[in-house]
Amino acid sequence: MSSILDQFKLDGKTAIVTGAARGLGQGMALALAEAGADIVAVDFLPTDDTQKAVKALGRKCVGVSANLSDRAAIATVVSEARKSFAAVDILVNCAGIIRREDFVNFSEKDWDDVMGINIDAVFLLSQHFVRDVIARGGKGKVINIASMLSFQGGIRVPSYTCSKSAVQGLTRLMANELAAKGINTNAIAPGYMATDNTAPLRADEKRSAAILERIPAGRWGTPDDLKGAVVFLASPASDYVNGYTLAVDGGWLAR
Questions:
Q1: Beta strand pairing call for 38-43 and 183-190
Q2: I want to staple 93 with a disulfide (CB 3.0 to 4.6 A). Which of 122, 186, 204, 236 is the partner?
Q3: Mind telling me the catalytic residues?
Q4: HSE-up of 21 (CA within 13 Å, CB side)?
């Protein structure tokens, strides 16, 4: 008789993780590998460190170099993955960027750049992934990376807020259309994490103190804090979870 813990195993599965060169993407790639999955590490930055770490866990890992602001590059990610693996079962849309400026001064370029990576690429890559899963008659898991700003307005980040609100909406839409086809779509909303995106906030002593004061856990999150959530949503343990955005935020939204 199998244990409930067996439902969290990813042996024999392959996961595409975007933004896998560092930070949260790298952390989630390693978590999936620890659970048994092989990894396709996608980034415009070198993924050598991620590949080395995954292989040290005894799993296969290939890197796919892709600038996800380029729609032609997005179209090749799944086909490149299939050159190394017979099937791809999991897609983690983690790649994202942020630009900060007052609303009245926010440039069209900063709007377009952020929306291009944070929502356009999520939609397009998910579409390629889902088409591939359906064509082979398989099952799949899509895990989008949302944000606290999928729930809140934020300050000085208009395109980031809009893109992450859109990620949450797209996650629900995909669940509505795809759940009956054996494809689960959910999202993770990380709280305030110690990553490159939050470096300016952490460097501002006053702002950092204000943020920490509101987090019940009393600390910034780390990539390790997302491991349990991403493995759960990628695994058979979450087969009846659809269209949900799971906050991993140290209690931020509870305040």
A1: unpaired
A2: 122
A3: 160
A4: 15
